[in-house]
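Hello Y.,

Per our agreement to keep a running log of every chain we model this quarter, I'm adding this entry. I've kept the format consistent with earlier entries: sequence first, then predicted structure.
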Amino acid sequence: KKATNGKGSKIKISWNKLSDISGYEISYSYSKKFEAKKTKKVIVSVKSKKFIRTKKLKKRVYYVRMRAYKMDSKGKRNNGKYSKVKAVKVKNSK
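Predicted structure for the entry above:
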């Protein structure tokens, strides 16, 4: 839904909660193509409505996308489609 530059060189992501899911997967990268070596993935609880990357990031543009997932009866994760990619310009904190 929304990705912004948080205070102190951080990325802040917020979204509307979905029903009947098990959680969210957030991917962020400084590569538009989300190349494996340049991408970080984070699993977030279904109860959350926001995520803040707490570790300071370098000053550059990051690309963020997310998707919901649901666990089936065998414990396998079924992923939904990725959201549209949002660009976030991280600035150095003073």
